[in-house]
Amino acid sequence: MHGCSWKDIGTALGVTRQAVQQRFHAPHKRYGPEVMAEELRQAMTQVKHAAVQHRNNYIGTEHLLWGLTAEDNGGTRLLAASGVAAHDIHRAAQARLGTGASQAAERIAWTPYARKAMAFAEARSQEAGRDLIDCADLLVGLARVGRGVAARILTDAGFDASEGSGPETPGPETPGPETPGPEGSGPEDSNLEGSKLEGSGAGGDAARAEHAPVG
How many CB atoms lie within 10 A of CB 106? Predict the structure, then answer.
């Protein structure tokens, strides 16, 4: 069924689009602390803090951007070099962090765009010949996703994602649908072990496509 959408394939098989994606997609890659520079590990602590404080059961690109700009690191220095104030980005990300109705779980699911940003970050670090992903890599990854909360904030601030290098497409996974729906609830299957963050599924804010749950 080359050239067909997941929805078309699901209709042909008599199952939902999400069921087809779960059946044919490879497992999401695990990003443990061993692939992260120390500054990124520290930023990930801030990322989870943002989710827990706001009772969010998902990690979206807004959480990643908030964590990246919470302290001085390679990401904030890249922003400064681009003429963008990190504290302005931090405040913009803060404004997009909604508060959930219940306490966040210990293992928190990642949205599709957040996972995609991490894949772009890894591709950038590898292209530069580095073994570890750093904060600047993830910042560029968030911008290069092109969609989602963080990408909009960075674009509005004038940050140019073309600064990053690396393959245009780091992996076969694509972000979630434009509009959320009831499909897609499912277990997580990979994690960011260093900060006890889950990197496979998504959940939480159903009012935003970025947060549409995936399996």
Answer: 10
